[in-house]
Amino acid sequence: RYETAQMLLKKSLRAQLLTLIGGSPLVILLIAFASFSFLSDDISKYQQLLKGPIETLRLIDEANVEFKVQVQEWKNVLLRGKSPEALSKYWQSFENQERKVQDILGRLVERSEHNPALSKQLRDLHEEHRRLGAAYRAGRAAYIAGGNDPFAGDEAVQGIDRATSEQLSGLVIQQRDSALHRSETISEAADRKIVVGSLVMLAAGVFIALLSLWLVNRNLIAPIRHLIDHIAKLSQGDFAQRVDASRA
Question: 226 CB contacts (<8 Å, ≥6 apart)?
Answer without folding.
Answer: 243
